[in-house]
Amino acid sequence: MKNSIVVRQVLPFIQWYGLMIFFTLLADFLLHRLQWVSVGRYLGYAGTALVLLSFLYSLRKRKFIASGSPKQYLALHEYLSWAGSVMILVHAGIHFNAILPWLAVLLLLIVVASGLTGKYLLKKANETLKEKKKSLLATGSSPEEADKKLFFDSVTVDIMKKWRTVHMPITLLLGLLSLLHILSILMYAK
């Protein structure tokens, strides 16, 4: 279990997700402590801008942008999305008066989790699984024995391969809810 995929890949994922929540709570605490609560409103704008800027990766991936390394754009996407998400979560705060912000926050948390799944888990999990199987075969295990020993790791990897089926539609739904939120603010702002 010490070298399992869960320990080597899932725990770092949980750490990054937990770090996002920690920074959100810390920033919210500091803003309240310093009586700068109104800054949270502007963090929503900044966070949205960072998340939108992170979509340069999608444009590069689909060849709308020809220059630059896709790997660099992916790293930019990951970090800008993460930082933007922290800002948006601080902006969201805790409001019990509207369902739209709660749905958007819930979707944001799911989008970040699915994005982190793609970043931290899937690629490394696939590599680890292949390395383990190769090692077992090299030490004399039959393919059937190796598959039996790696059953739970294989199931974990298969589940993680479905991350895009969650990430893309939820991202689109989050975008739609965010747009509705912005439009409602513009319509009802005083």
Describe the structure.
- This protein is mostly helical and 190 residues long.
- Helix content is 83%, strand content 0%.
- It has helices at 5-33, 39-54, 56-61, 70-92, 99-138, 143-149, 151-160, 163-188.
- The protein is elongated.
- The mean pLDDT is 86.
What is the H/E string?
A: HHHHHHHH
Tell me the number of strands.
Answer: 0
Number of helices: 8
Largest sheet: none
Report the sheet-strand fraction: under 5%
Report how far apart the termini are.
Answer: 58 Å
Coarse morphology = elongated
- On the 0 to 100 scale, the average pLDDT is 86
Number of structural domains? 1
- Structural class based on helices, strands and sheet pairing: mainly alpha
Radius of gyration: 20 Å
Helix content: over 70%
The residue ranges in which pLDDT falls below 50 over 5 or more consecutive positions are none
In short:
With 190 residues, the chain is mainly alpha-helical. The protein has helices spanning 5-33, 39-54, 56-61, 70-92, 99-138, 143-149, 151-160, 163-188.
